[in-house]
Each structure stands twice: as C-alpha cells, then as structure tokens.
Design a protein that fits this description.
Elements lengths: L2 E5 L4 H12 L3 E6 L2 H11 L4 E4 L5 H15 L4 E4 L14 H29 L2 E7 H4 L8 H20 L4 E7 L19 H13 L10 H14 L7 E4 L9
Helix pairs in contact: 1-2, 1-8, 3-4, 4-6
C-alpha cells in the first residue's frame, strides 16, 4: 500500500488528488494550513486518512508535518506538491510583497517540504510529484499572470535540481492544463481573489492569443495520472509528464 503525503490538500486539485488516492487504496496524509477543511477532506477520503496542519512557508511547520506523517505510516513512498497562488496583476504592478508571497508558496515551500521528506523517500526509492503549469512550461506567460508563470518556471528548475543531486528519488514535473477541480471545497480557488476589472482586461488577450484550450480536463483523469506515476515507484523514471484536455473542436 502506497504511503503518500499530499501538500495543499484542503481545496482544489490538491484535495481532489489526496482524496482520490485514498479512495484508490493509498494511505494518505493531507497537509495544508486550513485544518478544518483538511479534516472534512479526510472524512471524505475514508478511514485511515490523516489531516495534518502545515504552513509551507514555515520550515518548522514543514518538518513537523512530514515527521508526523512518516511516523504514522512508518515511512513514506511518495510526495505530491500541489499548492499554488496566482495573483492577477500586471507585471509592472507586481510589488515586492506579492513576489515574495508567490515564491514562498509556489517555490520555496516545495523545497522545504522536499527536504523534510527526502530521507523517507530515499529509503523507499520513492516518488515526488510537483504540479506545474502550461503557462510556465509550454506557452508564453499569460498576460496578468506573469508572477505565477515565473514562479512555476522556477519550480520546474527546482525539480531538476533535486533530481540532479538526489537520483535515488523519482522527481517528476507534472504539467497540468486547464482543470477546474471538483465541486464544493474541491473546486479550484485559484481565481477567487482576482479583480473582476482586471480579469475583464486580460481575458480577451488570453483568447486572442489562443491560450485557452476551450475545454477542461476532468479531475478524475488527473488523479488517475498521479496514481499511475506513484504506482510505478522506482521501476521507471518519469522526469516530466503533461496532462491536458483535448482542445475543443473548431466550429464548422
């Protein structure tokens, strides 16, 4: 039975992945800041699923959360890092606090959690999967989401750096296309803080530059891909995987 830590599991894709893996038979520890939401997710996932409070911007919190999960499961086989924030703001208007907040969550937190989990993953020749973005890996940055794209590009290089120095662990970048998540607390909260006026300004640019696929990836497909990556374990190296919806057909 896989022993998995899913970080960023209180909402959105992280919650969908965490509950989905548990329902497929894995032992899962759900980590995030919002403990009450985590506890609800753990109930949804089923018996044996752990809810552990973790702030990825704090070293002590990362270390204690990973230690608690590893102790409960007597080791770890996999880590999934899903947290991401993407403020909608022009690149010229992105202030220092916004840059720091984005990098603290999207990049530095990933490294803090990985460092804490590394001894356990090394012992099991385990797998670490990091959710990346089409806008960082496959397309030019979307107007208004420059800070997000830059941080995800940095995450891509971070994953490569971990792989270069620790080849005993499978480090995988999972590039995810348009995916709305599930329902309720499992829906993506990514655009919740966006200014509607800015969204109205930038959205036409996304359309005119063909950045929108016109369809959404079913979240169950994403969970299936993550599950397959983790099940492979040490047998196959998968440095980078792309999962995206098939583009909507052009109108005839």
């Amino acid at each position: 039975m896989l022993r998995v830590v899913v970080v960023g599991a209180s909402s959105g894709l992280g919650r969908c992945i965490g509950t989905g893996l548990a329902q497929r038979g894995a032992s899962v520890a759900l980590l995030a800041r919002r403990l009450e939401r985590l506890q609800d997710a753990a109930k949804e996932a089923g018996p044996g699923t752990l809810a552990i409070e973790c702030d990825v911007t704090e070293l002590d919190s990362c270390e204690s959360a990973i230690a608690e999960a590893a102790a409960a499961f007597e080791g770890l086989d996999a880590l999934v890092y899903a947290p991401a924030i993407g403020p909608l703001v022009g690149i010229a208007d992105t202030d220092v606090d916004t840059w720091r907040r984005v990098f603290d969550t999207n990049v530095i937190g990933a490294s803090l959690v990985t460092a804490a989990a590394l001894p356990h993953l090394t012992a099991t020749q385990g797998t670490a999967v990091y959710l990346s973005s089409v806008s960082a890996s496959l397309t030019p940055p979307w107007p208004g989401l420059g800070a997000y794209a830059v941080s995800k590009a940095a995450l891509d290089k971070l994953v490569e750096a971990w792989r270069a120095e620790h080849p005993g662990v499978n480090f995988t970048r999972l590039v995810v296309g348009d995916c709305g998540g599930g329902e309720g607390d499992s829906r993506s909260g990514f655009p919740e803080e966006w200014d509607p006026e800015l969204a109205a300004k930038f959205a036409p640019m996304w359309v005119s530059r063909n950045l929108l696929s016109g369809s959404l990836l079913e979240v169950e497909e994403l969970v299936s891909v993550v599950d397959a990556l983790l099940q492979r374990g040490a047998s196959v190296s998968m440095p980078s995987v792309v999962v995206a919806p098939r583009p909507a057909p052009s109108p005839s």
